[in-house]
Amino acid sequence: MSSYPLLSLAIWIPIFAGLIVLLTGSDRNAPLARGLALLGAVLGFVVTIPLWMGFNISNGGMQFVEVTSWIPRFSINYHLGVDGISMLFVLLNSFITITVVLAGWQVIEEKVAQYNAAFLIMSGLMNGIFCALDGVLFYVFFEASLIPLYLIIGVWGGPNRVYAAFKFFLYTLAGSLLFLIALIYLFVQSGYSFSILDWHQLPLPMNAQIWLFLAFLVAFAVKVPMWPVHTWLPDAHVEAPTGGSVVLAAIALKLGAYGFLRFSLPIAPDASHHLSGFVITLSLIAVVYIGFVALVQQDMKKLVAYSSISHMGFVTLGFFMFSAIGIEGALIQMISHGFVSGAMFLCIGVMYDRMHSRQIADYGGVVNTMPKFAALFMLFAMANSGLPATSGFVGEFMVILGAVKFNFWVAFIAATTMIVGAAYTLWMYKRVIFGDVANDHVAELKDINAREFFVLALLAACVLWMGVYPLPFTDVMHASVNDLLQHVANSKIK
Questions:
Q1: What DSSP assignment string belongs to 258-303?
Q2: Are 319 and 326 in contact (CB under 8 A)?
Q3: Taken in order 223, 225, 227, 229, is the CA torsion positive or negative?
Q4: Quick one: pLDDT band at residue 464, thresholds 50, 70, 90?
Q5: pTM of whole model > 0.85?
Q6: What does the angle CA 338 – CA 165 – CA 133 come to, to the nearest 5 degrees?
Q7: Which among 115, 271, 375, 492 could disulfide-bond with 213, CB atoms 3.0 to 4.6 Å apart, if both were Cys?
Q8: pLDDT tens-digit profile of 241-291?
């Protein structure tokens, strides 16, 4: 399988499909634009399936590698590859793109071609981030992925969409400038190489590692987002269209967490150990404090947005305990969060499309008029609460298990999210779904149609599969995680 440019196909098929969709022009051709977008999204996902089928789980190194000289004068290469850490995110991203195209099938009525093209191009760019093994190539994809999401929020978002899009762009761009300075420093220190794998082998002094780690931390913490640089996310989620919220939660937040494993830990291992307590503290604040902030939200989208920050705090906590079960649990949590948060935003979008309100107080008794929807929403609410046999339980349980071995009190504090998470999720569900029909608007609601049922059922199957049988996911990442931990341990200053 490695003789085929599968990674290039995963990157460029969605991008070229997006450009073709753009050529359909005005909204008179909206049906054609939608059909081409769906075809492009499906093809983009199909070419990633051989990555899973042909992946050697016993090899912790890079697989499906592609190397072509890009800018020889500066030793910049078009260098791609995936390991057990990054491969699953390529599949997740490509899969979520299909659900987003289907979710906006009838909802988006203006600038249909541009809307779908933005998602396809962004899908290809995000695949590029997960595959890039050249620092400049990574940075180009990393920054370029901001543009489609900025447009999606700013053009198709809510009343305050321009403010939310601008805030999102400024926050993420400011962090990325420090990241660029760090890349240039590594380029010089490595003898003028932009190879990320070369940077992993650099014997950097502790002082340099700390500065690099802090530069990476600023860039990636904004993307995750970690407390206290999280304030852009609720605004972006509330104003974004449903598809934008799904991609933002399911994929975009993962880019920062992925950066910690690709840059911070392997390039600055000593600084990672030295500053791990600081990162763990920030993670625990996100898990506990942001969980309580979610509890008082009246807007469903804002509640799930704060929920995402709390769940991503679990991810960074798992990374910096330096144990296999902690990192694997964090990776499982990232993938699960992609399914669960994406599904939660889709469910909120289903109700918003019918009532044009996201306020919890405007609902009540939805189960009486939308029983199929209520059943699926219940599954996702339970997964968001960490119910066993759903994907939401597996990652959180593994991270807590790793935390018990690391420090009992860290585990105790982290475990409070299981209670708080269930409180804010199930309380929202109870007020929205159960009880008598609250008003005439709820009484007139129609249950989900075949398209909506198909999209939610796909995500429900993923949530249950991962919750009942997570072994295929952990098997893929195990060798790569062990290699990373061995590298970090061997590099640690004695």
A1: HHIIIIIHHHSHHHHHHTHHHHHHHHHHHHHHHHHHHHT--BHHHH
A2: yes
A3: positive
A4: very high
A5: yes
A6: 55
A7: 271
A8: 888 888 888 888 888 889 899 888 898 888 888 888 888 998 888 888 888
